[in-house]
Design brief:
It contains 9 helices and 2 strands. By secondary structure, the protein is an all-alpha fold. α2 crosses α3, α3 runs antiparallel to α7 and α7 packs across α9. The chain starts with a helix and ends in a 7-residue tail after the last helix. Helix content is 63%, strand content 2%. The protein has a two-stranded antiparallel sheet.
């Protein structure tokens, strides 16, 4: 998992750091999930492995996670057939192999089933990050990512982002540019690449040239 994605998943401080680039936000969990999805897409697009983000590879990943969720839930019916002594031994063995359950370990059969159901639900949620996007435009990776970040920004702030150009120097600046750098640069670096210059790409997305009739 690339560095930027790992931080978005594991570090609450990173979620809030990115959220601070927006003047206001309504739901930090929803916001971070949206940004995570964009990072995953970019990471797959930049990857030179056989698992590049093609419709086929995305479907395979999604199907594998969905299949895992179904298999986990199917195992619940098997656990229900165990007698109490078997359940007690199962709980003891699981608790010895994991440090996730605290000093008291798993104390009931419900703990075991809750754990499996939690894994199944997590697999369902993970599969959604590999959903296909019908009609996905064939544009550069960075422009595609910027277009998605524009949608997130607009939904969270309530208005489209802007970009300011200094009339004397021509330098471009603005909170949305800073936000894009904070999200996208770590993904490029994790893939061993320099992040492309973002300001001009953002300008083309926000202010596309008008086509002449």
């Amino acid at each position: 998992m690339n560095y930027s994605v790992r931080l978005l998943v594991e570090e609450e401080s990173e979620r809030r750091r990115l959220a601070e680039y927006l003047p206001r936000f309504s739901n930090i969990e929803q916001f971070s999930d949206r940004v995570l999805r964009i990072c995953l897409w970019l990471h797959c697009d930049l990857s030179t492995s056989p698992y590049r983000a093609t419709p086929r590879s995305l479907k395979d990943r999604r199907d594998s996670l969905t299949r895992l969720a179904k298999q986990l839930r199917a195992s619940l019916s098997t656990i229900e057939l165990l007698d109490e002594e078997s359940l007690r031994m199962l709980r003891a063995r699981v608790a010895r192999r994991s440090n996730l359950f605290g000093k008291d370990g798993l104390r009931s059969s419900e703990d075991v089933t809750d754990l499996i159901e939690a894994l199944a639900s997590s697999a369902d949620e993970a599969s959604k990050f590999f959903g296909t996007e019908p009609g996905r435009p064939k544009v550069t990776e960075v422009r595609s990512a910027i277009e998605k970040l524009v949608v997130v920004w607009t939904e969270q702030v309530g208005e489209k982002p802007t970009l300011t150009t200094d009339s004397a120097s021509g330098n471009k600046s603005g909170p949305f540019l800073d936000f894009c750098k904070a999200v996208l640069e770590p993904v490029y670096h994790a893939n061993g690449r320099e992040c492309p210059e973002l300001a001009n790409s953002i300008q083309r997305v926000l202010y596309p040239p008008k086509s002449s009739d």
